[in-house]
Automatic annotation (TrEMBL):
Keywords, ordered alphabetically: Electron transport, Membrane, Mitochondrion, NAD, Respiratory chain, Translocase, Transmembrane, Transmembrane helix, Transport, Ubiquinone
Pfam families membership: Proton_antipo_M (PF00361)
Catalytic activity, EC: 7.1.1.2
The protein, known as: NADH-ubiquinone oxidoreductase chain 4
Localization in the cell: Mitochondrion membrane
GO molecular function terms listed in the Swiss-Prot or TrEMBL record: NADH dehydrogenase (ubiquinone) activity; NADH dehydrogenase activity; ubiquinone binding
Family membership: Belongs to the complex I subunit 4 family.
PANTHER family tied to this protein: NADH-UBIQUINONE OXIDOREDUCTASE CHAIN 4 (PTHR43507)
Gene that encodes the chain: nad4
Amino acid sequence: MLYLFVNSGWSYFYFIGGLSIIWCFVFVNVGSIFCGLYFLGFYFDFLFFYFFLLVFVIMLFIWFGFGGDGSYNVVLLMLSCFFSLCSFCVFNPVWFWACYELAILFVFVLLYFDSPYSDRYLAGWYLLLYFVFCGIPLLILFFYFSLNQSCFNFFFWSFSDFDGLLILVFLLFCSKIPLPPFHSWLPVVHGEASSLTSICLSGYVMKLGLLGVVRFCESLLGGYFLYIYISFSLFFSCAVLIACSEEVDYKRWIAGLSVAHIVVCMSCLLNFSVVWGVKESLLFGVGHGFSAAYFFLLVYYFELLGGTRHVSDTSSLLGVGWVNLWLTLFGFFFVCSMPPTVNFFVEVWLIGLHCVLGNFGFVCCLLVYLFFSAICPLFLLGTAYCRRLGGSDGGVVYSVVYGFLIFSFMFILLLL
């Protein structure tokens, strides 16, 4: 059951006060990229404060929303959030790896014990292979860099002689985000995980890979290799979005959509010489985490309301009341980056910046990707609405005419 903000009258005060304090730190720190504060063996910089906001809000939701159950899954997810926060502010590579993997490990345990689905063991094997074959090589590389540099503080490392190994580190972190073509395991895991696990997995666990890219692959950002990889990922993401349009399971659908959208974070890093490139990437990551978490919560609400997460049953759920209709509408607008969401403004900034820099070939790739990333959720939304408009007393009847009109209207909006 959901006990969100009903346990205590002080919950609202704690929530608003905590968010205000976090944003004060973010705006105070927004003027510096490479400056931070060393305190009690931790390093607090702009990256910590951006991702702290995301994880802290998810922690509050888990605690006040599901803490009344007193179950072990809440404890495990709180531990996962805690180790995620630790990975944001440590500067020792071994401790970073330990906190990084522990944050994923607790989610992996929940995949087995909290999921009600029979195929969770197959999904668990996917996540275990991802954990072993990406985590162990990363630890070995961290030890090699530390011993070679005679320093266990990665802020003092120099990667000038390790370009080949650094590309391997970059690919390992890309597999943890995951970016194409390392994404195939994620929809399977989301499809078999519980909704609460999916909220955490897509809300902040995916952002840990972005954290590693910014921390360790600084010298690759803005380089020729990254341009080639991101251009490939944009076209690959278009194929993922087309495949998502045929998906009938909402959780697999939003998982594929999350994989396709996260590539915008990496596209912002192409302009590392521009100070705001890294910050816009992190800002998009925070917005991506909130939108994905909201939609997974919406799917969980659909399951409680109608006992299903099948796409074709959305029209029946929308017919229950106007509240459900507006909640669904906001959810679709969040995931397709409609204004006034923060992701929309980051995408506009990214297109404008590449136009100013004269990268018109990349702008064309980006525009094609953004068109498909917007049309995929809007098409599904139009399908749900046309089923609702085409309903009758005998049941829900699919209306091709309504579907064509709504799809055409949204197509014209995208062209504008």
